[in-house]
Amino acid sequence: MDDKTARNAPLDMSADEFRKAGHELVDRIAGLLDWLHDRANPVTRAEGPAEIRRLLGTGALPREGKPAGELLDAAATLLFEHSLFNGHPRFWGYITSPAAPVGILGDFLASAVNANVGAYDLSPVATEIERQTIRWIAELLGYPATCGGLLVSGGNMANFVCFLAARKAKIPWDVRARGGADPRSALIRIYCSSETHTWINKAADLFGTGHESLTRIPAGEDQRMRAEDLRDAIERDMQKGRIPLIVVGAAGTVSTGATDPLEAIAGICREHNLWFHVDGAYGGFAACLPEATRDLKALALADSVAVDPHKWLYAPLEAGCALVRNGQALIDAFSYHPEYYKFDEHAAEGAINFYELGPQNSRSFRALKVWLALRQAGRSGYETMIRDDCALAAELFRSLERYPDIEPLAGNLSIATFRYAPRRLRTPENEEYLNALNTEILVRLQSGGKVYPSNALVNGKYAIRVCIVNFRTTQEDLMVLPELVVRTGKEAELVLGKG
Questions:
Q1: What's the pLDDT tens digit per position in 416-471?
Q2: Which fold has domain 115-364?
Q3: What's the whole-model pTM score?
Q4: Helix or strand (DSSP H, E) at 321
């Protein structure tokens, strides 16, 4: 390196090079946003791994590089022509929303600053934006704005953070020192519904309580936990010398959008001094609606709540959020002060170091895209969009009554579930056949590219599931679905037989 003022850095770009490549890329993305509004375009091309691998090629890592602009253009073409588009108006599958355009730009801006939001000193503005975002999310939910919290990657991690805060707060020994080595570990019990998402299995596995610590309370026909069954299970365990620890209630189950009787569960937890956690990853944000049910609004009674801005706040992935009523519980669960971290210069001013509140030390600036969207839409804007999503699902569910070959199953919040089931087939001996038939229908719908629902199991019945967290979806989009299901069902019957 002869010139001591310069380096050969292939990844660097001049401002002019960056400006040119960036403008061209923004134009390509703007074109994608236009493309997404055209219902004739496919939600997915349903290509298999072999097809995608052929596009990428099988060569070794290139020895020499290429210009950034050329690479960005090629990457945009690859992504825009071979992805599944959750921003498409007819994507109603897994609970992933379209990315709000301001969030797309927010991620771009956040990456430019590249703040490490682990400590205030490393990210002063970013830290305070995240702190404000947490407060605004709590306000939107009706949760105490004085709570502690942080943004994480998604629902699993948000629930994990709350689980670990609960474990530290409620286990009657020093769990950070002894972990599961205490002989009482086998006595721990955690309660949830049979409809609870599998994050709870992962948490029990990862954090030392084990799957045998889980007591799943069977949900009723309405897919909700039975509060009295929960009380009975807790009291039986206490009589046997076990240690009830945490109760998990759902604000919007992943399959049918059901909300557990959160108010009653909160009372049981207070009575027995248990930690009450609400998994609101999907449905929690519907608590912002003035007309939300009393049980949904009762998430405000929880010791902790998990929600996902990348679901019903329409933020780009990744953005989950953990809220804990007593913020000290997060510090108690996660804080360490190693010698190599000296981030206490602004402690007297109340600065937050987010590495003390969760499992990550290095943290991306997730809050910016959420903060910008909250400011752009405001409370009223979010109420309108969430209310519209719920109304569209309810209208779809009602419309199914006009189709004798479709059996509506369950509908809550912005979810509608149903199955293709001609009346002649609705007998107990045909249940296995109907499950296989609807499995085949869903495969055909998803690979066809015109619509993209997903599946659920509702009281043993394999269902086609529509979940609307999509500000581009209209009633016109949804009304094409029932006839498409009936047509596809008849085609599938020809393949599988008539039952």
A1: 999 999 999 999 999 999 999 999 999 999 999 999 999 999 999 999 999 999 99
A2: Aspartate Aminotransferase; domain 2 (3.40.640)
A3: 0.95
A4: strand 320-324
